[in-house]
Write a structure and sequence with these properties.
Layout lengths: L1 H24 L4 H21 L4
Helix pairs in contact: 1-2
């Protein structure tokens, strides 16, 4: 249960930080933004579905 919530938190933090930096501080190139955002979303999804496989 703890691993699941850690993955979800890390994924959300990555996604929010990248979006906030891109919109308000500095425009991040798509070559960097898209893979990192996808990685954050994948972590969130792994966290959600990790418990269902048990």
């Amino acid at each position: 249960m703890k691993d699941k919530s850690i993955l979800i938190c890390v994924g959300i933090i990555i996604y929010i930080v990248m979006t906030g930096i891109d919109r308000f501080v500095y425009h991040i190139p798509n070559v960097i933004y898209i893979p990192v955002a996808i990685f954050g979303i994948v972590l969130i999804l792994i966290g959600f579905f990790k418990d269902k496989s048990k």
